[in-house]
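# step 3/5: fold
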Amino acid sequence: MAEYILPLERLIEQFRHLPGIGRKTAVRLAFAVLDFSDEEAFAFSDAVRAAKEQVKTCRVCQNIADGELCPICADEERDRSVICVVEDAKAVMSLEKVREYRGVYHVLHGAISPMSGVGPDKLKIPELIARLGSGEVREVIIATNPNVDGEATAMYLTKLIKPLGIKVSRLAYGIPVGGDLDYADEVTLMRALEGRRSM
């Protein structure tokens, strides 16, 4: 038998699908939603639906976008000769906070993780290699997370890109090993970008 009435139990289970949300937090969030006014509750559900319907993938870099191109790819001032490769859109946002990097990005949508069944075929690697074929790119900065999966992905990409005659660099380790880019502060990210090394 469910602990709460069915509509509330269903809401709790939906919150439990979110990363890092356990049962207690899901219960707290569900009760918070119940405390919303009708207007607030409908605005909340409309925002979830609109995000799912309107957020797309940029046709160039695979970042999130609300049109054909993300704002970074649409910006004519960006240096297209340097591509920073990241695991997810959150990492793009973290690096953009630094306001020092003026190149473009490529979002892989994950990292190689044999333990989780994620191979190179499940990432946006073919799209990256296609971009490198233009002859415009002179450097690829690999900014995958400094953990086992991120390192495996970095090594795999390096083996693919180096034969193309393009410089491959990696973010310096101003970021703690085992950490995520989205939790690093701006100064750490700036030092990591400045101290990147060739691979």
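# step 4/5: annotate
Residues 38-54 form the longest helix (17 residues).
# step 5/5: archive (pending)
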